[in-house]
Amino acid sequence: MSGITAALAQTVNTPYTEPGAVFVSQAILLFGLLALAFVALHTKRSTLWWVGAVVHVGAGALLPYTANMAGFFVIWELVTVGAAIVLVCEPDADGLLRRYLPWQLLAAALLLSGFALQFAESGSIALPAAGVTAGRVLIGIAVAIKAALMPLHLWMVETYVRVRPGTAVILSAVATKIGVFGVYRLLPGSITLEILGGIIATVAVLYALRQNRLRPFLAFHIISQVGYMIAGVGSAAAVAQIAGLYHLGNPIAYKGLLFMVVALMVPMTGTSNIYSTRGMGRRSFVLTVAAIAGALSISGVPPFNGYISKSLLQSSLVSPVAVHLLTIAGIGTALSFTKFLWHGFLRPGPLPQAHDVQEGLIVKTGTRTITAVLSLLCLLMGLYPRSFFAELPVSTGITGQSFLSGLTWPIAGAALFFILYGPILRVLLVTLPGSNTVVSLLRSAGTRGLQLMQRQHSGDIRRYLGWAVGGTLLLWTWVVLAP
Amino acid sequence: MNGLFTELPVLLIVIPLAGVPVLYFTARRGLGTALPALAVILFVVILLSSGARDAMHTPVVTAAGGWQPDLGIGLQFDLLAVAAMLVTSLIVAQAILSHDETSGAQHFRTLLMLLYAGSNGLMLTQDLFNAYVFIEITSIASYALVAGKQDRGGFESAFKYVVMGSFAGLLVLWGIAGLYLTTGTLDIQSLASRFEAAPGAVASLSAAAVIAGLLIKLGQVPFHAWKADSLSGASYTVSALLSGVTTTAFFVLLLRVLSALPSLTVSLAPILTTIAGLSIITGHLMALRQPRYSRLLAYSSVAHVGYGLLAVSSGAVTAIAAGLFHILVHAIMKSGLFFLGRSFLHTGNRSDRLEAIVFPEQHRTLHVTLYVLLAMSMIGIPPVLGFTSKWYAVLETARAGYDTGAALIALGGAVALVYYLRVGLQLVHRGLPELSSPGPASKRLPVPIAGTALILLLAAFSDRLLGFCVLAVVQLMETV
Amino acid sequence: MSRISATLLVSGIIVFGVIVAYELTLMPRTADPLNHAPLTLRDTGAVNAVSAILFDYRALDTLGEATVILMTATVVAFLTPRAKASMLAVRLSSIVLYGVVILLPFITILGIAVMAHGHISPGGGFTGGVIVATSTVFYAVVYSVGGQQSYVIAPAANKLIENTAMTAFIGVGLLGLGLAGSFLANAQTGIPLGTPGELLSAGTIPVLNLISGVKVGVGLGIIVMSLFLE
Questions:
Q1: Residue-number span of the structural domain to which A245 is assigned
Q2: For residue C164, which of A218, B65, B406, B432 sits 20 to 30 Å off, Cα-Cα?
Q3: Is the minimum CB–CB distance between A238 and chain B shorter than 8 Å?
Q4: C90-116 pLDDT per residue, tens
């Protein structure tokens, strides 16, 4: 039976407590709580917003504990419901909902179809359906949408750019992680997924390099990091999976950190253009430290946490192609964040006109404390990884030798920024296709199809009667011809 | 089982029929018609629930006039009828409450009683010709209700409805005649055993004609096109009745006919599932670009009945039960959305074009909440009943071997979101269009509160409700 | 609809017509309808098997059909706007006027007789009702002067009669339910069926015949009169 209330009761009574799932849940919960705390200190939000945010984060943290399809799907949808409530409270709610919800519902529909096929084959709604091959592609596309993997990332970029900064922090805490967890939980490990992850990590970095606005820039980097995670959790190798999971936990610290920094930067400098922000380094010491810590982490520089998962991934992936792709992505990330740090914080020159900024924001001790805590967390997760995730191999950690070798690629990337950034940017601008062309093509084709269909329903009763007669004749033909 | 209960099915039809003169006499004495009409429904519901336990053990079969089926008319009071009639009673009660006390109220409620009697008869009868009589009663009552708006649009809609409805009636009558000619019986149960033995293709052709007629009534592709035109000319209350009550009744009748003819159902399965699939696609895609609220909901009905038809024609017991469950849930939520449409009128706006409709200022939050819950249910987002019914429909259809169909049902939700979101954003929009002046202040609460509350609450008991439906379908299969 | 698709449809229908006609010629006769007659006489005491079927075996259907007529009458009366009937403004010749005067009582009596003898001879409530309706329509057509309609029975009274008849029909049914435990039961209630062929025989059948005759007569009258009022 496909019982649903029974299945939900089972999720509550006997949760699924595999260490990886528990780690993901804790990661989402921790990041979610920090993000909520940040927003609470940062700005005022309506009650409804808080309800939505709590549902979003709570459902996200609950998801890994589900042991069957019904629980997984319901909670997966609740995450969307929470996000929708949050978006309703945003200033541009119409546009946001139109951009966010259809994609999420499409993902849900695909997931449901995939589950249905699995259920049809195995006859049980328990997860994971071992040995069942049906429905994998559908589930794969569903989790790819949720994780905002590359051609299916539009919803994320378009949403995160339009919401208020604090909201972006909350949303980024859950959605993509759930997608990655979906890959881990629902799909068997394979080389294909490793390479796919590598490709996405690389391509997303290339797109990020092209950006000149802060939030799309960060959004593409999130996608790139998700590529790393997919390569890890989608791998058949156990160690790579663990590395992928740890990489899923890492952004708790650095991604949140970077989003918060950006959230505070925009009002302070009065612009969201990377090239125009400057002088942050001279304005706020704490923010500068936080930005540097975040950038170093995401670039995988030891002794920060990004290094641990990235190096472990590089050493444990099965496919050499994926390893090389991740290396390229790593260089690109370093290059990109050097640009960010240079223009925003370090570049000398006259300060831009002081805006009437709510500079009061930064003075608040609360927000400053949270950024400081997160920076510290980045460092600690790098220095003592096994206290955070006990499943990591014993050898994980930073030694003198690994410290030096870990510096190679990030430094190379940073160096590229000062030498070759201009030409690289020019090439990227020309070669990468913009997303809008594809979307508008699809949209016009769809519209034309719908118009055609609509024109057939002309309201002429003779035509409708003709259809009915034709349908009856069809039924009769079938009856006569069928055995 | 004896005494009143063996005769209970007849009473379920006769009480609403008796409601017609009762309403007439109470109106003559100036007592109003709302309370008597509600009393009729209450009476029916009490009878239903008191008979439900008997029906649970063995379906009560009554022979009207004491003549056993084949000679007389058999009525079958089983779980299927109980479940469906409880739902339709709820909708009829809401319709009575939704109609204002205007000059047409008595006329409206009289027709409502006839519609109620007819649909109850459709769901109970075991006799094909008797079914035809009730089809006519239900249909004529609906034509009259659609025309009841008494404007150009209402008459045009009613005209189209009459043309298609008459064609459907013709097909059904022709089919019944053919079946009687070839099998010598009108009783659905004896038909089951004699249908196989009937020589030649006439029996199958006749049965196919009956099915085609019912598909027209249900509005499935390619028989669907009248639906939006008819519903858009009717008032919201009438649309709620048509998409809630009559659709449910015809679906139950289709279920009875199909379950009596298992071999024909198997051979028709490919084409029935194709029809259902096309209905799902057409319904959702057409709804995307409809300019008017009622047309949009009508096309969505095409798709949702398609879910039910798909599940039913797949042939597995659990799938049929899931399809039945979805149809019942759909009746509640779709009629709820139509009833909600009555609130637009309180803004003083008579058009139901999407860019013109907006919720009134009174009880605004309540309206929005109701709309969101109902729309969530239509789309199939947890934690409402529409989600669980969709879940069962998808999974059980897939298990019965119709993967594509299951995927269509699942994807339908994603498309539905797009149009319900569009409407929802329009409805909550505070910048009113110029043409709508603040309408007459209404103290009245929006009608579908009860239905919506049910949708929310019952979601917690979904498994048990599905179990009930499974029991009903098993009973249906066994008795035939 | 384009010409091609129309042609296709029509040819499809013709093809199926031929198939069905061919199949029908192949079919064996399943039952001889005349075999029912002795059975109905025993069960219901009605000589007219058709009436026995209509008002006893399948009385529920008849209740439904009578309801359809009632409903149609209500709907037509409600939907047609009250206006002067131009059709009734025609002056008729004196031959017609006097002819109708002479004929009217006979027509009415014929209608009532057909209703009353429904169980022993061809005819019955529906047939008799139509005849009665004809007489009322005749009257209205002939004696409505200058578009001002004259009625045998006022519209309000029409409605009262209709609803009373419906109540009576259901009442007879409920009587059967109370006495014999099944709705619209006839012989089972213990009502004497009488001698077949006599006017007072066949239990409730003549009563139901009369009731439905009244319903049909009044209902058709309303429908036709309302359609004049256009």
A1: 189-432
A2: B65
A3: no
A4: 667 778 778 888 888 898 899 888 888
